Amino acid sequence: MSGIAERNPNRSSQEAHLAGESNRPRSRGLIHAAAVQAVVWLALGAAAPASHAAGMPPPAPPSGLTWSDTPNDAGRSVELAWKLSPDDTLATGRVTGYLIERSETPAGPWTLVDSTAAGVSGREDQSVQRDTDYFYRVTAVGPGGRTPALSVTGPVRAVSQWINQTRWSVLVFLVVFFGAVLFYMASAQAGRKPFVRRIPGIDAIEEAIGRATEMGRPVLYIPGITDIDDMQTVAGLVILESVAKITARYETQVTVPVSYPIPFAIADEMVKSGYLSAGKPELYDPRSVSFVSPEQFAFVAAITGIMLRDRPAAHIFMGSFFAESLLLAETGFSTGAIQVAGTAQVAQLPFFVVACDYTLIGEELYAASAYLSGEPKLVGSLKGADLLKLIIMAVIIVGCLLESFGIHGLTVWMNTQ
Amino acid sequence: MKREIPLFLTAVIGIFMILSFFVPHQVVSVPADFLQQSAVILVAFGYVLGGANALKVNFDAVYKREPGWIYKLVLIGSLIATVAIGLAEGRNWQDETTRSMWIYNNLYAPMNATMFALLAFFIASAAFRAFRIRTLEAGLLATAALIVMLGRVPVGDYATRWLPWKWAQLSSLQQWIMDNPQNSAKRAILMGAAMGVMATGLRVILGIERSYLSGED
């Protein structure tokens, strides 16, 4: 380690910088630099003394250091590229890596910001401040020591871009989709309500609640196990309102255990709203919605406990589920309850299909609220989604044909970053 | 106004977050990051609400001596003890030697693992029902499952290695099933679900889907 340190012409300035003598108030960059430097010295230092003792000279420096502002970002990184040291070959073994240093002036002081292994000729520095000028240099390090940098490149400046050029395709599809949805919603409101096929799984919800009513047992509703940032949870909560409306009409108790606090508050509102819409607010039980736990298996333990103790006659699972899907559905199956599930988690669908009486697959979960409410605007939005599906199918076919003929323009345009 | 203000905020923030996907500039990305951090803080306050509800529901059950009240008492005791120990240990509660970590390693983790382990038995019972061949579709499913399961273990590969046609060997067949029919169906479901996500998002942003705001005006 000392061998390399002695060959570093800027060691003193780096040490001063690491010791906090620099006048730049960028503690985060300082910590980052210190961490990188420590790792690099530790990694390179172990091999250096013995090899150096063998008299191996330092490797020739890398050349042609160039920079470019990272495209389509908020000015938070720059890309660096260089030509490898002529000694960077497996045969000689004289290069073990490259050190990337940065400064705000061409004369230094230099801060080690990153390192690469031998054979790597580029790096992205993601620790820059936008609209700040930097200077970079790259040196090669090997068992024989470290070379002085050949040249300094700069000033390098990371600039924020206004548009992510790789996302035009998404924007076009989004505009088409929003346009189609708005058009069909307006059309449905004007009286041209689109046809919606029967979805047996949604029809079965009322049947399940009816059965629970006949048996005098509660209905158990699980709106998934994810937080409100998952759209499946939103869909599950929206369906809950319709379910609560039916349970209110049938005067049947509904139990809604929820795994996260925000969905819990919304679920409470949904149930309240359902009872209000059904004209029976007095039947609303504040204890019907409860917060359980965001921990997956603690939640499972609580729900299976409810299933086995309270014996609800209907279990409705609507939302995002993971490994607990089968634990819940199989326990529910063993109690003999009628079970309806809906999820867009592809890996969990087979479990629900096996263990439940009805399963809403993928998009049916999102269509359920429109289907249940029959609201023209909501039903119209389904038609808009169908139109986009048709367009996507056409694009897939055209894309396959173009790729088959070696034309890659569409594929490149669709590729996002 | 009880409805209009939340609807307005939902629309503005929703459109802004969509915009941030296309505009990386700091004029959009910095407020978007701030909004996301605010959401995290909001969720943290939500836990206070959730914890209060858990205590209320379970205290009520204990007070009224509902069936299983003793378990609820254990829950309340555990909840209070864990929070109290965590608070007493302060910022270093995640250190290996703390009581909080002892609770995590010796109580929480084993209970979690026990629940997860049950899955093996449930998969066996569910598979038994799934693979009963009563219809043509069920027959196809069982055949495909058999090929995939055998093709993914060494014995399946070994049993068909002698076949002169590579495509007829179980490992190749299972890979074809996974890459083609399985993957196509999965992507179709995912694309349909993505449309559903966008449609639901748009309905919420436009205020058409507003039931989450409660029925009271």
Offer a quick outline of the entry.
Chain A is α/β, with parallel strands linked by helices. Chain A has helices at 2-7, 11-18, 27-45, 48-53, 168-189, 200-215, 231-250, 261-277, 296-310, 324-334, 349-355, 363-373, 376-404, 409-414; strands at 63-69, 78-83, 97-103, 111-117, 122-125, 133-142, 145-146, 153-157, 219-222, 254-258, 289-291, 314-318, 338-343, 358-361.
Explain this structure:
The complex is a heterodimer of chains A (417) and B (217). Chain A is built from 14 helices and 14 strands. Chain A has two domains: 2-157, Sandwich (Immunoglobulin-like); 193-374, 3-Layer(aba) Sandwich (Rossmann fold), CATH 3.40.50. In chain A, the strands form three sheets. Chain A has a six-stranded parallel beta sheet, with helices on both faces. In chain A, strands 3, 4, 6, 7 and 8 form a five-stranded antiparallel beta sheet that branches. A three-stranded antiparallel beta sheet of chain A has the order 1-2-5, with no helix packed on it. Helix content of chain A is 46%, strand content 18%. With 417 residues, chain A is α/β, with parallel strands linked by helices. Chain B is mainly α and 217 residues long. Chain B has seven helices and no strands. In chain B, helix 5 (136-151) packs across helix 7. The longest helix of chain B is centred in the first third of the chain and has 38 residues, at 26-63. Chain B starts with a helix and ends in a 12-residue tail after the last helix. At the A-B interface, helix 5, helix 7, helix 8, helix 9 and helix 10 of A face helix 1, helix 2, helix 4 and helix 7 of B.
